[in-house]
Amino acid sequence: MTTDTTNTTDTTDTTDTTTNRSNGGTSHPHGPRLALAKLAPQVYKAMIALDTAARQGLDPALVELVKIRASQLNHCAFCIDMHIKDARKAGESEQRIYLLNAWEEATDFYTEKEQAALALTEAITLLTEGFVPDAVYERAATHFQDTELAQLIALITTINAWNRIGVSTRMSPGKA
After folding, report:
1. Among the four 42, 44, 113, 156, which has the fewest Cβ within 10 Å?
2. 3-class secondary structure for the chain?
């Protein structure tokens, strides 16, 4: 396919039909790009197995808080939607779900252990300094035994992988 690059009034990019350039390229349809589970079934099965293994020994409510928070940071609408529904099923309160993106300002709503897990979630998810700060790791280590901390790190790593799959393939919220 050829594109006429001399026409400056054309607001569409014919080489990328998923992006609407009429408003500066910031808007795009959020329909799925591809079905990873069908196209890479072994990878999908491995991710499911990893997710199942990573949550072992962790409190189900904490698992969902971690998954929601990482998904918020990664802007994965599909995962936010799914894990909020899962958190509700696990008995999580609406108020704690609503306040999760400002948990540091709402410390009365989360235990010290949950706060340590959320801080570790943010540090691993963002890696803005290229590492997880010792203070964040040590805070988590005071609230989690080594095995539990290893599971938590695996859980955070797994949800970040899911988020990257969801965002890159544009999985649509409301489908889970």
Report:
1. 42
2. CCCCCCCCCCCECCCCCCCEHHHCCCECCCCCCCCHHHHCHHHHHHHHHHHHHHCCCCCHHHHHHHHHHHHHHCCCHHHHHHHHHHHHHCCCCHHHHHHHHHHHHCHHHCCHHHHHHHHHHHHHHHCCCCCCCHHHHHHHHHHCCHHHHHHHHHHHHHHHHHHHHHHHCCCCCCCC
